[in-house]
Design a protein that fits this description.
Shape: globular
Radius of gyration: 17 Å
CATH topology: NADH Oxidase
Bound molecules: flavin mononucleotide
CATH superfamily: NADH Oxidase
Strand content: 5-15%
Distance between the termini: 31 Å
Order of helices and strands: HEHEHEHHHEEH
Helix content: 25-40%
Number of strands: 5
Length: 168
């Protein structure tokens, strides 16, 4: 799938079905995350690939749809390695979401619900105390076709030369 098609097709899918993800596809998704821009190129991120059903069940306490897949990619960062760790997490996460979409899978950026009990989830995954566990990406198939949420139109967002100069 072309990049622009993946950008348009990417949607937060919470109604997921499990699917076998061949290692070659998983490698491409992880490589997309690895190649994301990184502030001062400090690369403070680690990815945790979770296939163990018991661990998936524990993580699903954050959000039920995590239990509906057989593969989750979690993103952790060491804030001690870079002041830009949060931005780096976002860049890697979006790259992986686009790769997941381009390969025909579905996912959703799970962060808000994961952070409610971050310490518990860190323990379940063995993430060291000094690190942050910010994102979980379930990788599955969409149970039903799902479109991206509505976005504000460019004519509302884009200012030409100076803030306030909108074009209709
Ligand atoms: C920083 C961040 C945190 C998010 N956390 C969650 C979450 O915990 N659970 C969830 O279901 N979706 C989460 N989302 C997905 C958003 O709800 C979703 O992107 C938004 O509703 C727009 O829908 P779209 O992704 O289909 O465009 C998160 C997205 C971002 C960028």
């Amino acid at each position: 799938m072309d990049l622009f098609e993946a950008i348009e097709k990417r949607a937060s899918v919470r109604d997921l079905k499990p699917v076998d993800v061949p290692q070659a596809d998983l490698d491409r998704i992880l490589d997309a995350g690895r190649r994301a821009p990184s502030g001062r190129n400090r690369q403070p991120l680690d990815f945790i690939v979770i296939r163990d059903p018991d661990t998936i069940k524990k993580l699903a306490k954050a959000q039920a749809c995590l239990a509906d897949v057989s593969l989750i990619i979690a993103v952790a960062a060491d804030p001690g390695k870079s002041e830009f760790w949060l931005e780096d997490i976002a860049a890697a996460t979006e790259n992986m979401l686009l790769a997941i979409t381009a390969l025909g899978y579905a996912s959703v950026w799970i962060e808000g619900t994961l952070l409610r009990d971050e310490d518990d989830h860190k323990k379940a995954l063995g993430v060291p105390e000094n690190m942050r566990l910010m994102v979980a990406l379930p990788v599955g198939k969409a149970a039903e076709p799902k479109s991206q949420a509505d976005k504000r139109p460019l004519k509302e967002i884009v200012h030409w030369d100076r803030y306030g100069n909108l074009r209709s």
